[in-house]
UniProtKB/TrEMBL annotation:
InterPro entries linked to this entry: CoA-transferase_III, CoA-Trfase_fam_III, CoA-Trfase_III_dom3_sf, CoA-Trfase_III_dom_1_sf
GO molecular function: catalytic activity
Species of origin: Mycolicibacterium fortuitum
Name of the featured protein: Hydroxyproline dehydratase putative
Domain of life: Bacteria
Record-linked Pfam families: CoA_transf_3 (PF02515)
C-alpha cells in the first residue's frame, strides 16, 4: 500500500510546476483529478506546436501527468464551477499553479475556498509569491527560478552569455518543495482537522537552491562568481577530459586528503614534492599551472584507463554523462530511475522516493483529455443534471 492511498487531490494546473508536484503525489498513492479546460492543458501540444508530428510521443507531458484522471471543466461558466466545488468537497487537496489574479476572477481564491471547505489544503505555486509588485507577473523557471535569483549569474564563467538551465529544471525543484509542503499540512490537519493555504514560488525555491551564495552575500556583502575551469581555486574539484574526449569531474573536496590518491592514479609521485603543488594553499596559488598539468596527464589516456586507475586508488570522481549514457547506466537502472509505462512499449523517469524498500516497476500512462470527466463527477457526487450539463460542454467525443 502506498502511503497516500485514499487521498484525493484536485489539480488545476498547466505546463510543469503544478502538474509535476501532483505527479509525485500520484506516484505516492494519491488519486489526482486533473482539471483541464476544453482545449486541454497547453503542455499536451508542446511537441506539435514546435512543428513536429503529433504522432511523436509527448514524453515531457507523460513525466508530469502519469497516472492522473483528466476532467474537462469550463470554469468560466456556472456548471463547471459547481462541478469543481463538488469535487473539492470530496477531496483533500487543491493544488494549482494558476496566477492569483486568475483564481480570484473565478471565485477560487484560497480564502473563499477555505470558507466553503475548511478541511481543504489549498496549495498554490506562483512565480514570485502572493505579495509584492510582481505577485501577478507570469513566472517561468528560467526567469523566476534561475534568472531572478542569481542562479544563472553564478553559472557564468567570466564575461560570457548566461547558459540556460535544462527545460523544466526549476519547475521540478519547486514541485519537490511543494509536495513536501502539502504533506506537512496534511500532518497538521491530522491533529486539528483544519486545512490551510500552502504557498510556494519559483523565486523562493530558486533562492533556497542558491542558498550558500545568497547567505554569503547577506552576511559578508560579496560572493565570488564562477570562473573559467583553468582558473578555478579548487583544481581537485574540477572537470577534465580524457584522451577519447570523455569529460569527468574530480571530487576532491578535501584537497590535501585526496591529493595523494590522485597522484598515485596519475603515476606522478613527483607532484608530491613539487613546491608549487605540495599543499592545498600551494595548488590554489598556482592553480592555472596545476590545471594545465592535470589536463596534459588526463589527455594521455582514454577514459577506461582512468576508470580503472581511479577505482584502484579510490579517487573520488564521476563521469559527465549525456542523456543517452544515463539511460544505459547500470546503476541508474538498478536504482529504478526509470519505470515502464503501463500498456506501452515506453519507459519514463520515476519519482525520487521509495517506501518500505520497494521500487516502483511501472506507472500508468498520462490520461487522454477529458477521459475521466463523467466517472470523476459521479464519484464526487454530482447530480445527474450537473453531470450532463458539464458533458455537453466537454470535448466532443470525450464521454
Amino acid at each position: 500500500m502506498r502511503p497516500l492511498e485514499g487521498t484525493i487531490i484536485v489539480e488545476i494546473g498547466a505546463w510543469i510546476a503544478g502538474p509535476s508536484a501532483c505527479a509525485l503525489l500520484c506516484d505516492w498513492g494519491a488519486e489526482v483529478w486533473k482539471v483541464e479546460p476544453p482545449r486541454g492543458d497547453p503542455f499536451r501540444a508542446v511537441i506539435s506546436s514546435q512543428g513536429y508530428s503529433s504522432e511523436i510521443p509527448n514524453a515531457p507531458f507523460t513525466v508530469d501527468n502519469r497516472g492522473k484522471r483528466s476532467v474537462v471543466l469550463d470554469l468560466r461558466e456556472g456548471h463547471g464551477r459547481a462541478a469543481l466545488d463538488q469535487m473539492l468537497a470530496k477531496s483533500d487537496v487543491l493544488l494549482t499553479n494558476m496566477r492569483m489574479r486568475s483564481l480570484e476572477k473565478l471565485g477560487l481564491s484560497c480564502d473563499a475556498l477555505l470558507a466553503r471547505h475548511p478541511h481543504l489544503i489549498c496549495s498554490v505555486i506562483s512565480g514570485y509569491g502572493s505579495v509584492g509588485p510582481d505577485r501577478n507577473r507570469p513566472g517561468y523557471d528560467i526567469g523566476a527560478f534561475a534568472g531572478r535569483t542569481g542562479i544563472l549569474h553564478q553559472m557564468r564563467a567570466g564575461d560570457v552569455p548566461p547558459t540556460a538551465l535544462p527545460l523544466g529544471f526549476g519547475d521540478h525543484v519547486v514541485a519537490l518543495a511543494t509536495a513536501a509542503g502539502v504533506l506537512a499540512a496534511m500532518v497538521e490537519r491530522g491533529r486539528t482537522g483544519r486545512g490551510q493555504l500552502v504557498e510556494s514560488s519559483l523565486m523562493r525555491t530558486g533562492a533556497f537552491a542558491l542558498g550558500w551564495e545568497l547567505a554569503v552575500q547577506l552576511m559578508l556583502g560579496k560572493v565570488p562568481g564562477a570562473t573559467q575551469r583553468i582558473a578555478t581555486k579548487t583544481p581537485l574539484f574540477n572537470c577534465y577530459q580524457s584522451a577519447d574526449g570523455q569529460w569527468f569531474w574530480l571530487l576532491g573536496v578535501e584537497a590535501d586528503r585526496h591529493f595523494p590518491a590522485l597522484v598515485a592514479a596519475l603515476e606522478r609521485p613527483d607532484l608530491l614534492s613539487d613546491s608549487r603543488f605540495a599543499t592545498s594553499r600551494d595548488r590554489r596559488r598556482n592553480t592555472s599551472e596545476f590545471v594545465e598539468v592535470l589536463d596534459a596527464a588526463f589527455a594521455g589516456q582514454p577514459m577506461d584507463v582512468w576508470v580503472q586507475r581511479f577505482d584502484e586508488h579510490r579517487v573520488w570522481w564521476e563521469p559527465v554523462h549525456s542523456p543517452a549514457q544515463v539511460v544505459e547506466d547500470e546503476q541508474a537502472v538498478a536504482a529504478a530511475c526509470f519505470v515502464d509505462i503501463e500498456g506501452t512499449e515506453f519507459q519514463t523517469v520515476s519519482g525520487p522516493i521509495d517506501f518500505a524498500g520497494e521500487q516502483a516497476k511501472s506507472v500508468a500512462a498520462a490520461p487522454e483529455l477529458g477521459a475521466d470527466t463523467e466517472s470523476v463527477l459521479r464519484a464526487a457526487g454530482c447530480t445527474e443534471d450537473l453531470v450532463q450539463a458539464v458533458l455537453r460542454r466537454a470535448v466532443p467525443g470525450q464521454r
